[in-house]
Amino acid sequence: MAETEGVRRRDFINIAAVSAAGIAGVGVVIPLVSQMSASADVLAASSTEIDISAIQPGQAIKAVFRKQPVFVRNLTPKEIEEANAVDTASLRDPQTLAERTKEGKENWLITMGVCTHLGCVPLGAGEGEIKGEFGGYFCPCHGSAYDTAARIRKGPAPKNLEVPEYAFTTDTVVQIG
Amino acid sequence: MARILSILVGLFFTVALAWSFGLGFYTWATDPAAPTAEHEFHLLPKEVAFASDGAFGKFDKQQLQRGFQVYKEVCSACHSLNHVAFRDLAQLGYSEGQVKAIAAGFQVPGVDPTTGEANLRPGLPTDYFPKPFANDVAARAANNNAVPPDLSLMTKARHEGPAYVYSLLTGFQAQPAQLLKEFPDSKTPNGLHYNPYFANLNLAMAPPLTGDGQVEYGPGNPKPTVDQMSKDVAAFLIWTAEPSLDKRKQTGLAVTLFLLFATVLGYMAYRNIWAGKKH
Amino acid sequence: MSFPWANEYKPSHPFMQWMDDRLPLPRLVFNSVGAGYPVPRNLNYFWNFGFLAALCLIVQIVTGIVMAMHYAANTAVAFDTIEMTVRDVNWGWMMRYAHANGASMFFIVIYVHIFRGFYYGSYKAPREMVWLLGVVIFLLMMATAFMGYVLPWGQMSFWGAKVITGLFGAIPFVGEPLQQWLLGGFAPDNAALNRFFSLHYLLPFVIVGVVILHIWALHIPGSSNPTGVEVKAESDTVPFYPYYVAKDGWFIGVFAIVFSLMLFYFPNSLGHPDNYIPANPMSTPAHIVPEWYFWPFYAILRAFTQDFFFIPAKLMGVLAMFGAILVWFFLPWLDKSPVRSGSYRPLYKKFFWFGLIPAMAVLFYCGGAAAAEPYVMISQLAALYYFAHFLIVLPIVSAIEKPLPLPYSITESVLGTDEAAQLAPSATV
After folding, report:
1. Which of C104, C157, C223, C343 is an active site residue?
2. Which residues cross the membrane (chain A) (predicted)?
C-alpha cells in the first residue's frame, strides 16, 4: 500500500514537471505569434481626418485610411433619388442609402474603395473614370458594378462597398476610424 | 616529428610575443606615458537614485511629465528626440486630448496640399518629435561647430546613462586651479564649457539649466531647482530610451518565478528518475 | 555504431510500424536522444552544456527569424527599424533583448563546453572528428555573431565591421583588394550591410548542418565521460531516455533562470553603450571593443605591438588571432597522452588550472580594457602562455607525465567495485 503511494507520488511529480515544461512552451509561443500582429505605430495611424469642403456635388475624392483607399462622394440630388428608387428586396446585400450615410448628411457617401470581391480598387471616384452601368462604381478586375449608394448590383462581389466607421467632427471635416 | 614542428611553431609565436613585451616594457619603464588632464580630472557620474531603479522599480509618471516639460522648454531647442512619437506620451499619463494638444503645439514638416511645397503644419499624435535642425550642417553652423546629439537613446548610449545625464547637467563649473597648474595647456578653449563629467572635460553645450525656477512646475510638484530639473529630465530620458522598462521588469518577475517553480519540479523529477541509480 | 545492449526501437502502433518501414525518423530519434542511446552513467554537469548549446542555437534561430521580420538592411533605416521593433512591435523589446543576450548565453555555454573538452581530453581518439567539427561550429558561430553585431548599424557595428575587415588588409599582396571585396566598397556601407544580413541569416542553418554531423560523429563511439575510461559493459551506461532527458531537462531550467535574469533585468549590461549611437563614418568611438566573447582573441590580436623580423606587427597579430583558434584543430595530435581525463593527469591538471584558465581569464579582461599599459603587457604574457600551453607544454607534458592509476571501469569508479574487474584483474585502461 505504502509502496504504491510512493509510486503515485513520483508519477505525479514527473507529470507535473512535464506539464510545467508544456506551459513554458505555450508561454514562449504567445509572444512569438503576437509579434506578427499590427505594431503600435501601425495601429496609431489607423484614423484619418479628411477635409471635405472642396468636394462639389457629383464629385468624389480618394483618401487613405489604413493604407487603403476611401471614397468620399458628394451625391447629387439625382443620384440620391436613383439610389432611393431601388427596391431593397431585389438587392444582393439589402441596405438603403439612409442606412449607409449619416442622418442629415445623406449626400455624403463614404465607403472603402476596396471591391468586396477580391480587393481591387473600383473605378468611378476619379475624374473621368467610368462609373459602370449603375452610375456608382465599377471594378475592372472582375466586372462588379455598384450603384450610387455603392451597393453591389452586378458581378461577382458578394457585398456592398464597406462603410467604415466615421464621424463628422465639423460640417467640413470627417474623421474616419 | 609532429611534436618538434609544434614546438617550433610555438616558439615562433612566443618569441614574437616576448619581443613585443620586452620592447613595450622597456618603453613603459623608461618613458612612461605622460598623464593627461582628461585622465586626472574626469569624474565618474554622481550617485543618484531614480524611481525606475532596481528589480521592482517603476516610472514615476509625475516626474516623467516634469522631465518632458524640461525637455520641451529647454532641451528641444537644440536636441532632437527622433525615436519618440507624440502618441507615446500617453504612457506618461496624458489623456488623448492632452496628447493631441501637445502634438499640435509642435510644428512638423508637411506638404502644402495645393502647391505641393514643403511647409510646416501642427503636429498630430502619430508624428514624431520634429528635429530642431534640418541636417547636421545646419546643426553645426548654429552650435559652434558641434552637433547636439539626439536624446532619445541618450541614457542607454552612455555608461551609467541616467546618472551621466544628471551629472552633466549639474556639473558645469569653473576650471579648477589645480588643473591649470598641472596642465597649463589645457585651459578650456573659448566657446567651450568646463565639465568634469564630460569625457574630454570641455563641451560645446553651455549650461542649459542655469537657475532655479527656469521651468515652472504646476502645483503639487517639487520646487524646480536646477538639481530637481536635471533629475526629472534624466528620468524622462530613461523613459524615452526604454518605454517598455516597466513591462520588462513585470514580465521578468512573472517569468522568473515560474521558472523557479518549474525548475524545482524538474529537479524533483530528475531525482525520482535517477533514484536507486548510483552515478 | 552503438553498444550491443542498446534498447531496440520497437514500434507498437501499426502507424509507427508503417512509418518505420518508410521513413524511420522516430527510430533515428529513439537511437540518438531516446532510450536507444546508452550513455555513461557517471557524466557530471559539464556534460549538460552540449544539450544547452543546441537549445541556444534554436533560441537564436527563432528570435532571429522574428527580428528579420521587422528589420530592413539599409544603412538609412537599419538603426531605426531596430528601434521600431523594440518600441512598437508587440513583444519586440523582448525579442531583441532575447536575441542579443541569447548570443552571449550561447557563447558562455559554448566556452564551458569547449573547456570541458580541454580538461577531460574529449578531443582524443576515437572522437577527433567530433572535436574538429566542434571547432568548425565555433568558427561559424564567431562569423555569425560578428556579422549580426553589424546589423543594428550603431557606432560599434560600423567600427567593428571596419576594424575586423581591416584585419584582412594585413595579408600581404592580396590584402587590400580582399578587404574591398569583402565590403563591396572602400568602407562599410549598404553593400556590406546587405551581404552581412544575408550571410547572418544563412550561417545559422549551416551551423545546424554541422551540428548534426557533430552529433552523428559523437554517436559512433558514444559519449566520453569524466573518468575517460571507455564504456565496457551495460552496467557502465544508462539509456539517454529517461535518465539524461531528465537531467538535461531540469538543467535547462537553471539555464533559463540565468537567461531570464539577464534578459529582463540586465539586458544591456553585456552590450556596449556606443551601439545605441547611430553609425557615424566620420567619428570613431574613443574605445572600440568587440563583443565580450571575442575579447580573448582581440587581446591576442593587440598583443603583437612590434614587427618580428620581416613580419609587420599587424600581420603577426592577425596570424596569431586566427592561429589561436586553428591550433585547436591540431589538439588531438599535440596531446599524445594515453590517458584521456585531466583528473588522472596530475601534471596536465596543474597546467590547466594554473596556466590555461588564468591566461584565458587575463586575456578576457585585457581584450575588453583600453589599449594602454599595463594591459597590453599583461595580455602579452597571457598570450605567450596561451601559445606555449598548446604548442609546447602539451606535447612535452603528454610525453613525460606519469598518470594516476585508472579505475577498471565506469562502474567501478561509481560503485567502488565492478564484478567484471574481478574476473579480468589484469586488464588495463
Report:
1. C223
2. 12-33
Q: Is the CB of B274 inside 8 Å of chain A's CB atoms? A: no
Domain count, chain A: 2
Is residue C291 within 8 Å of C197, Cβ to Cβ?
Answer: no
pLDDT-derived band at B145 (thresholds 50, 70, 90) equals confident
Q: Which residue out of A142, A143, A167, A173 is catalytically annotated?
A: A142
Which residue on chain C is closest to A37 by alpha carbon? C90
The CATH code of domain B37-84+129-243 reads: 1.10.760.10
Verify that A143 and A158 share a domain, yes or no: yes
What domain range includes position A116? 43-176
Q: Angle formed by the axes of helices C295-303 and C357-368, to 10°?
A: 80
Among C87, C91, C250, the residue with its CB nearest the CB of A35 is: C91
Contact call for B272 and A41, based on CB within 8 A: no
Give A-chain residues touching B87 at CB under 8 angstroms.
40, 44
pLDDT tens-place string over residues B187-238: 888 889 999 999 889 999 999 999 898 999 988 999 999 999 999 999 999 9
Considering CB atoms only, which of B258, B259, B266 is closest to A17?
A: B266
Query: Measured between CB atoms, which of B87, B259, B265 is closest to A13?
Result: B265
Note the pLDDT tens digit of each residue in B28-72. Answer: 999 888 888 888 899 999 999 999 999 999 999 999 999 999 999
Of C82, C54, C52, C55, the C-alpha closest to C66 is: C82
Is residue A20 located within the same domain as residue A50? no
Q: Are C109 and C102 in contact (CB under 8 A)?
A: no
Domain ranges of chain B: 37-84+129-243, 244-279
A64 with A6, same domain: the answer is: no
C247 in active site: yes
Q: Which of A13, A27, A44 sits opposite B87 (nearest CB)?
A: A44
Say how many CB pairs under 8 Å bridge B and C. 171
pLDDT of residue A46: 72
Provide, as residue numbers in chain B, all residues whose Cβ is less than 8 Å from the Cβ of A14. 269, 272-273
Chain-chain contact of B126 with A45 (C-beta, under 8 angstroms): yes
Q: For residues A16 and A57, state if they share a domain.
A: no
The correct answer on CATH 1.20.810.10 for the domain covering C38-280 is yes
Q: What is the CATH number for A53?
A: 2.102.10.10
Q: Range(s) for CATH 1.20.810.10 in chain C? A: 38-280
Per-residue model confidence as pLDDT tens digits over C128-160: 999 999 999 999 999 999 999 999 999 999 999
Q: Which of B88, B112, B114, B126 to mutate to test the interface with A (most CBs of A within 10 A)?
A: B126
C-beta atoms of A37 and C94 within 8 A: no
Residue C170 contacts residue C317 (beta carbons within 8 Å): yes
Question: Would you call B17 and C323 a contact, using CB atoms and an 8 Å cutoff?
Answer: no
User: Does A33 reach chain C within 8 Å, measured CB to CB?
Assistant: no
